[in-house]
Design a protein that fits this description.
Distance between the termini: 64 Å
Strand order of the largest sheet: 1-2
Order of helices and strands: HHEHEHEE
Structural class: mainly alpha
CATH topology of the largest domain: Non-ribosomal Peptide Synthetase Peptidyl Carrier Protein, Chain A
Length: 144
Amino acid sequence: MLNDFKTFIMRGNVMDMAVGIIVGAAFTKIVTSLVDDIIMPPIGLLTKGTDFSNLFISLSPQQYETLAQAQAAGAPILRYGLFLNALIQFLIVAFAIFMLIRMLNNLSKPKTATPDTKPCTYCYTTIPIMATRCPNCTSELKPA
C-alpha cells in the first residue's frame, strides 16, 4: 500500500497540481496586494475617499457610524465592501489567467506547413507540388 501511494504521489499530474497550488497561493498574495494597495486607493479617491473594506449595512435596528463600532457591539452586519474587494480580486485573477492561457494557446498553435504534394489533375495520384509532368500518367501539368 505504501508503494502504491508513493507511485501515486510521484505521478506527473499530482506533482503538476502541487506546483500549481503553490504558485496559485503566491499569485493570490500578489493579486490581493495589487487590489488593496494599487487599485482600490484610486477607486476610493474617485468615490471621495470611500474605503470599500469599511462599507457595511447593519441588520439590527441600532445604526452604527463605523464598522468597528458595529463589530464591538456584536451587531449582525453585511460587510458588502469586503465583497466588492473580493469581487475585484476575482476579476483581476480571472483576467490574468485568461491572458496567460491565451498566450500559451498562441505559443502552442501548430504552424501550418505548406503542402509539398498535390493531386494530379488527371489521374489523382499524389505527386510533388513542383512537378510539371505526372510520373504515373505522364500528363503535362500546369506549374504550381
